[in-house]
Amino acid sequence: MGGDGIGPEVIDETLKLLQSTSIDFDFVQAEIGFGAYEKCGIPLPEETVEKCRKSDAVLFGAITTPPNIKG
Hints:
Elements: H1 7-19, H2 34-40, H3 46-53
């Protein structure tokens, strides 16, 4: 889950590193953060929560709230 801000960039590089190892990973993408909020009205959709629950581990970048959004 890349999330917002620098999160997607950090996750992209982390995935490259993990894929360069001899370990076999099964990566599943999920929406979180402001991008998810724009698409479905909430920053942590239930679909994302379910994917996390079904996973052995979660790789998470970062999230933020843009300054023009009141919380």
